[in-house]
Amino acid sequence: MFDIEEELKKLPPKPGVYLMHDEKDAIIYVGKAIRLKNRVRQYFQSGRNKGAKIEQMVTHIRRFEYIVTDSELEALILECNLIKEHRPKYNTMLMDDKTYPYIKVTVEEAYPRLLFSRQKKKDKARYFGPYTSAGAVKEIIELLRKVYQVRSCNRILPRDTGKERPCLNYHIHRCKAPCQGAVSQEEYRENIRHVIEFLSGNVTEISGQLRRKMEQASENLEFEKAAEYRELLKEVQAIAQKQKMSQSHEEDRDVIGLAREKDDAVVQVFFVRDGRLIGREHFYMKAASGDTQAQILRNFLTQFYSGTPYLPRELVLPCEIEDRELIEQWLTGRRGQKVILRVPKIGAKEKLVELAAQNAQLVLRQDMERIKREEARTAGAVRQLEEILGLKGLWRLEAYDISNISGFAGVGSMVVYEQGRPKRSDYRKFRLKTVEGPNDYASMEEVLTRRFVHGMEENRLLEEKQVSPEYGSFTRYPDLILMDGGKGQVHIAQQVLAGLGLAIPVCGMVKDDRHRTRGLYFQDREYAIDRTSECFHLLTRIQDEAHRFAIEYHRSLRSKGQVHSILDEIPNIGPARRKALMRAYPSLEELKKASLEELASLPGMNRKAAESVSGFFASHTGVSSLQNEKNMR
Q1: I need a surface site. Which of 373, 455, 535, 585 has the fewest CB within 10 A?
Q2: The CATH number of the domain where 493 resides is what?
Q3: Domains held by the chain: number
Q4: Cα 579 from Cα 585, distance rounded (Å)
Q5: What count of other Cβ atoms lies within 10 Å of the Cβ of residue 500?
């Protein structure tokens, strides 16, 4: 039993990060502290004005843990990483997870390539970017491949030279076929030099080359070729206006504006490079109730700039933030050069901040209805479900489904929804091990037993500290289990949970004659549900998702040849005889009842083949529908 008062006495007076856990052991808040002893104690001191968000959070804290660091800067970095990893409920969260693209030139290769990349790795390649538009990056790569005929294949050259035929790009004059030795390494690298010149901002050289080629083709009366060069020249000039590579200039800055409506916030970022506004992006934030503008802004900075590949020299902010000097120090370390946070009061920068804020407000207003609709169909639908069933605190829902063909190769699926949204990283699939034949109840019993026994074992290992917290995939239990059926399915689940000593509510989705959900079965009572409600639509989506996930797994097994006709296992029965049997008998039950004489009289069959069929079914249990086996082929 975790004694909060006793654990508070053990807190060290050192910098670090603390993690608050709720009754289900989920991490609900992550924070950093200069002195852990002082900061964590403040949450549990009565009489302090902690704000509505903190007051609410404290009521859910059942235990806390902490990680000591050597400095406050280390604590800040660790806090950023833990928030991104765990996405705690009471931290203000950046909803967007955008990354910006680069153009990668693999100069370390004998015959370099141009590639689209979302990451700037520490390798020997040259990177240009980041760009604000993935479409612009693809346009530039396509243009340069047209002009300089740079290869796009993954062949390792010169090792693979001549091993395969040249690809289509060679035949349409998009590649010089270095894979065939059709171009020397020196000539190819000269083209790569021109590519790098263009990406470095030197448009004059490529424009001059294309203009000269266009004029030469025109003089030679090659008007189609001249028109082609003319179009390429237009593309170069158009793209040159958009292009902007990431070099560190004094006038590189990001201008940040913020707009907020209750728990929803939008941050607008203007990207200024070389003194010119080259692009903008907006980001949605889910603010915790009680968070100030400065707190939202601070959380945006730590989350967004911990992942963005390029940091400008200056960030222009709408207001002062907490830990300004510390965040400047952290950003400077990430960039490798000085980063400054500014809050302008007058002048052009202040007007840019105001303009960014106006744009953020416009985005927020335009999307507020969409945000409200999304909230209604997710978290709002879960609240409706709570009202119908008389439950509270439904955060995580798990639903299960079984899929098989006539009982063969049965599989189970587990899908997870949190706050009405699918959490696909927690989906799990099961290949049935103990159930033979089409027995949905036994199949569901096996799936649920395996799921929760596995979860209990993982939790035991975590408690004994034999594994790290990241180890477990089943450790988090649902607040409600949804069964794709009524009374029978619910009782199977309740028996499994009771046998394992777990108290988790189970709800069945009762079907009508057309296999459509008509109501909910909960605690031995059926509850009607409005088919026009968001709750009904959510349950339908969950049902469909569980069914889809199970079917896809089953199909993947079949596509790998892991499911095959029972007839394939019978000696002396090849493809022709199998077809004859399937045409003559609509089900395996009828086939098993057939006499030796009847079997031997079928086209392509003989006495020996008939005895093989009869003997096989005498020692094996079959399935009920041969037609289903036929559909699998």
Answers
A1: 373
A2: 3.30.420.340
A3: 5
A4: 10
A5: 14
